Amino acid sequence: MNSEVVLQVENLHVYYHRPGGFFSKRPPVMAVRGVSFSLHRGEVLGLVGESGCGKSTLARGILRLVEPHSGNITLLGMNFLGLKGKQLRQARRHIQMVFQDPYTSLNPRMRAGYAVEEPLIVHRMGSREERKQRVREIFHLVGLHEDDMAKFPHEFSGGQRQRIAIARAIILNPDVLLADEPTSALDVSVQAQIVNLFLDLKERFNMAYIFISHDLRLIEFVSHRIAVMYLGQFVEEGSTEAVMDNPLHPYTQALISSIPTLDEKTGRKKIILPGEVPSPENPPPGCSFHPRCPQRLPQCDRTTPELKEVKPGHKVACFLY
Question: How far apart (Å, rounded) are the C-alpha atoms in residues 83 and 85?
Answer without folding.
Answer: 7
